[in-house]
Design goal:
CATH topology of the largest domain in chain A: UDP N-Acetylglucosamine Acyltransferase, domain 1
Number of strands of chain A: 37
Number of domains of chain A: 3
Structural class of chain A: alpha/beta
Distance between the termini of chain A: 89 Å
CATH architecture of the largest domain in chain A: 3 Solenoid
Number of helices of chain A: 5
Oligomer: homotrimer
CATH superfamily of the largest domain in chain A: Hexapeptide repeat proteins
Strand order of the largest sheet of chain A: 6-9-12-15-18-23-26-29-32-34-36-37
């Protein structure tokens, strides 16, 4: 592809030979001659100058002062993501329903659906236009999947779930397992609370491999538009995850918790049950949230405090053993002073 | 269903019109006219008075003083769970073995077994009366499952495992993977210790989605009667989990650890290997247990201490940076005093 | 098997009746008459003297002074692992490809491959000699698996992955799911960065149940020779795990992190992205690694410090509330002294 075509696709501003032939995209360090790379942060500028790349996507207003061609754009990372998709277009499936799958007669399939072998689609399930079900997918009775979804191998969708358009679910994820609800009787035996609610995944949601989302006890567990969940995450019954939130791997959210819009959580964060969070919350990896969090703040620690408080405390912590000794010594000096007073 | 019928099923005491027609159960805030709800704690009494519900299940001795009908019982939460099961009875499967499944000739199936398509049942496996295997279940050779089990899609049961009656296993759970045992030789290479033991799940156990229970290295890993494990839990080789224990999501238990009866663990708790715990232990979420824990106590922190100690420490912790400054200042004042002494 | 045969297989030195018949191996406490056990640490010497075992494998230079037969070797634990494999040989599969599986015509199968029913093998995939695919395995297009692998039920191997020889993958593990990469645009919407790289599992790797390894965004995620990963682990895009490393269950490694050789991590450890670790690092369970770690050290805590620092701090921590009170009291005494000064 010629550089001028790339520039036009990215709505950028070109400095260099427009007819240069670009044959691939790559990271700054990995890029070879004939490839294009990008700069997201000025600190990589030196590495970029050393790169073997032929061209680079730069933020507007940054100049390179080397022989390399430059495309200037507002958001180079976003432009790079777009370009990566152009050079590596998703594999086009050949629509069709494998005869080695089991699709109930009452299931409703849209246009251009792809069902690989060894898939099970239950009674009255609906699969939207252009959706792909990889081998081993299980779709329970009455569950619905919207348009242009990609459901990878061995995903389990229990009966009665509701999945929006353009949803991607990675292998082994479980949508709609029972919430963890048991009532002890007087003997200590745990009696199961029937879990009769559902899971709703709204449009443009992506769910990571082996992530589990429990159905509502009653009502629903809802993952709102544009939410991205990484691998091995637990979302308990009756939670809500707000629009465009991103949760990193191994996060666990307890029952009936509500997370605001655009939340960002690092890996292995845990959140207690019935917690309410505001919008635009950021939580550092491995933190533990015991109670409500106001929005537009960064939190850390278990239990969470504001991140700057946590940082100071963590830096002070290794001084504690010496502090104890010092205080003990000071006490003796005070005693001595008091004797002489 | 008439209110008097509900009252009779719950062994309760009715105040109000016995012929009221009740068409559903719901939470206090969600309940609509014609529905019944429940009160587990007095603090929700005001919300209950505002609820649109027609009737409520209350603890004995609590009165409502509104026009709503009341059923008084000892344990309203338990009564509610029962009622939920009455209004939402589990779907009755039509027993039968799908011809699109692979069931070994030597496998022994009980009465009224349901085997969905795409299931694999190995040599000499036994499936008890009334048990349901959803699509994609794998049952290895010589494994046995008791009566009235429900094994959800994509559960893997390795060869030689032993599963009791009324056991529920959610999608993607793995029963009997190899324990994590390797011996380094003089070159640093890890040599596998053959894992030849089994997993025993006793009666009335429920296992969450994508939870993993490793087989014993030798001997067994045993999950005792009535234990409930949430999603994404790790139980290592040769552990024992005591009767009626409940472990929340993402808990990890290392090898050869023994947990007492009625343990309760919050999410993401980790327990070291070879730990012995007494009965009735409670452990706060995200705690880490390095060594034995006496029973009938509440623990928190990593490493765990008693919860009240942990709470005091956590509350004191953000004061540490200021404390260090204060001690430094005091030291100077002491030096000053000593000079003048 | 006669004791002298065992001794010869282990290259040991025998003290006792060479013709004793040994019918099994077992742990020190579980061993019965006719069985052989082993001693890894002198502290179990008393238990061994009480054991009902007929023979024991001991480290060279340790004597037992009981009637039991003794085989002396350099590394008794390693000898024991070997012996366990002799008494419990792995089940020999009968090679063959089930007609109830779906194997693409363009797939290339080696000699003596075993493909159970309900397996899917994609276009141009290669399966090496002697490899076993259990029911429900999914192998995507163009993926390759080496010699003598064991791929357990419901493992998902995405398209284009590369797996070495003698690799064992436990049930439900996912190899090659998309890395977690999204770029926000000016509206806060997350745009997916196409994930076009692959996963390489080198020879002699073992992967635990439900563990997830994401493909590289570009390039690769590489698990080097002899690495053993436990269950429910997350390895993000573009990570490298060094030779012979062992990671316990529920560890999470963020993107582009590089782990050295022979690393050992306890359960639930988390590591940030872009971290570089030296060789021979040990990390205590539940620790959190925020930045680079030099090799040949033991680390603990979140954020990690050296283990001895962490231990002292953890032991001091419960004294903090009292320390605060003491300092407050001392301050008053200083004020008093200053008044009188």
């Amino acid at each position: 592809m010629k550089l001028k075509e790339i520039c036009s696709l990215l709505n950028g501003c070109l400095e260099g030979d427009p007819d240069l032939e670009i044959r691939g995209v790559n990271g700054v360090e990995e890029a070879a001659e004939g490839e294009i790379t990008f700069l997201s942060h000025k600190k990589y500028l030196a590495a970029l100058k050393d790169s073997k790349c032929t061209a680079a996507i730069l933020p507007e207003g940054v100049s390179l002062e080397t022989g390399k061609a430059v495309i200037s754009v507002k958001n180079p990372y976003l432009a790079f993501a777009k370009l990566l998709g152009i050079f590596h277009p998703p594999i086009k499936e050949t629509p069709g329903v494998s005869s080695q799958s089991v699709v109930s007669d009452s299931a409703v399939l849209g246009k251009d659906v792809t069902i690989y072998p060894l898939v099970y689609v239950g009674e009255n399930a609906k699969i939207g236009d252009g959706t792909v079900l990889f081998p081993g997918v299980f779709v329970g009775d009455h569950s619905t999947i919207g348009f242009h979804g990609v459901i990878h191998s061995h995903v389990s969708i229990y009966a009665g779930m509701q999945i929006g358009d353009r949803v991607v679910i990675h292998s082994g994820a479980v949508i709609g397992s029972d919430g963890f609800g048991f009532v002890p009787d007087e003997t200590g035996k745990r009696n199961k609370i029937p879990q009769v609610g559902k899971v709703v995944l709204e449009d443009d949601v992506e769910i990571g491999a082996n992530t589990c989302i429990d159905r509502g006890t009653m009502g629903e567990t809802r993952i709102r538009k544009g939410v991205k969940l990484d691998n091995l995450i637990q979302i308990a019954h009756n939670c809500t995850v707000g629009e465009d939130s991103v949760l990193a791997a191994q996060v666990g959210i307890s029952g009936s918790t509500s997370i605001g819009k655009r939340a960002m959580m690092g890996g292995q964060v845990g959140v207690a049950d019935h917690v309410e969070m505001g919008d635009d919350v950021m939580i550092v990896a491995q933190s533990g949230v015991p109670s409500d969090l106001p929005g537009k703040q960064i939190y850390a620690g278990s239990p969470t405090v504001k991140r700057n408080v946590w940082r100071k405390t963590q830096m002070a912590l290794p001084q504690l053993p010496d502090l104890i000794k010092k205080v003990r010594a000071m006490e003796k000096r005070i005693e001595e002073l008091e004797k002489n007073d």
